[in-house]
Design brief:
This protein is an alpha/beta fold and about 350 residues long. It contains 13 helices and 13 strands. The strands form three sheets. Strands 7, 8, 9, 10, 11 and 12 form a six-stranded mixed β-sheet that branches. The longest helix has about 35 residues.
Length: about 350
């Protein structure tokens, strides 16, 4: 009986202790995924997303441990399996992902862009402007006008001015077209002069016409010549539709992959941004679709300076931290994120990383 009483007393005391003394909280398992400047793995994790998380954890008194992740897609699978509590990094909030996990309030808004390689000048790139619509249409219009002018002038001059405008059609019209051309260019060699009244009227009308229209007639030709001689080129990718059938590399499971599929590009999946960019440098793809801040950060730290960011903008996407659907602390995180946005702390962290280079 005494032993049973002692056992009952021990259990009662243990229950009281468990009620009134807080249990030791377990460390949160924080998955870290993404690219610089949001996630940088050196001796320790750093970057925009990491610093924002550290501020959150400090203010909430959270204990945690970082768990490196190969990709966002893999980390989402891990959190659904209960292997992670939170995922931080440059993770776009999408409807597809919201079906599987929950997100905090957005802390950053990023554009999805395209990194491309500038084309080296080729023979075709130099002569291509001469085959453009502007050049060909201008030349054709000018030739037609010269032909019409040549015929009118020859008809007016062929009988009284046979030396300069012979009766033979091809010879006479050819001379008349030459006269129209030198008049058009205001060179006026003086080797030919109309002598008939109708010939002079036609010539006068031609002079006035060319004075008024010469700029528009030669604009297409001048543009093509300028482009060719200065070796200018039209950007290959200007709009999202331009990537149709183009070879692009994307990070597996990223939103860049979604946009590449939507615009029917030929996709080459990689695990990391560095792998995707290496394919571009090797000319195995035509571009890399990814978040613009990460691409800009790479370009600032690229010593070779061989790549460029194209003007294509696929979308504006918000970043947030991922938490499991059965979370119990997302409200506190949301409140703190909003406070950090309002007091300028997030902007301060962003400026630190986005306005500097590899010295961070």
């Amino acid at each position: 009986m005494l032993n049973k009483l002692n056992l009952f007393t021990f259990i009662a005391i243990s229950c009281v202790i468990n009620i009134f003394l807080p249990a030791q909280a377990e460390k949160l398992r924080v998955g870290v995924a993404g690219a610089a400047p949001f996630v940088i793995k050196d001796n320790v994790f750093k970057g925009i997303s990491v610093e924002i998380w550290k501020e959150l954890a400090l203010s909430e008194g959270l204990e945690y441990e970082f768990v490196p992740q190969n990709s966002v897609a893999n980390s989402i699978d891990s959190i659904n399996k209960g292997e992670l509590d939170i995922i931080i990094g440059p993770i776009s909030i999408t409807s597809e992902r919201l079906e599987k996990v929950a997100f905090t309030q957005p802390y950053f808004y990023a554009k999805i862009g395209l990194l491309a390689s500038p084309e080296s000048p080729t023979v075709w790139s130099i002569i291509r402007p001469f085959f453009g619509l502007a050049f060909i249409s201008s030349v054709c219009l000018l030739t037609v006008l010269l032909f019409i002018m040549g015929n009118l002038l020859w008809l007016a001059e062929r009988r009284r001015n046979k030396e300069q405008f012979p009766p033979n059609y091809f010879h006479g019209v050819g001379n008349a077209m030459w006269f129209a051309l030198v008049t058009l260019t205001t060179v006026g060699y003086g080797d030919m002069t109309p002598v008939t009244k109708s010939g002079r009227i036609i010539t006068g009308v031609w002079m006035v016409l060319t004075t008024v229209t010469i700029s528009s007639l030669t604009a297409g030709i001048a543009t093509a010549l300028t482009v060719s001689l200065t070796n200018q080129r039209v950007t290959e990718f200007s709009y999202p539709q331009d990537i149709k059938d183009a070879r692009v590399s994307v990070i597996k499971g990223s939103t860049g992959e979604k946009w590449a599929k939507q615009y029917e590009a030929r996709i080459n999946q990689t695990e990391t941004l560095v792998d995707a960019i290496n394919l571009l440098k090797l000319n195995e793809v035509d571009g890399v679709i990814f978040d613009v801040p990460a691409l800009q950060y790479y370009l600032r730290n690229d010593r070779e300076q061989r790549l460029k960011l194209s003007p294509v903008n696929f979308a504006d996407e918000p970043y947030g931290f991922i938490v499991s659907l059965d979370n119990s602390f997302i409200k506190n995180l949301d409140i703190k994120l909003l406070e950090m946005r309002e007091n300028g702390k997030i902007r301060e962290i962003e400026s630190k990383w986005l306005s500097s280079s590899k010295d961070n």
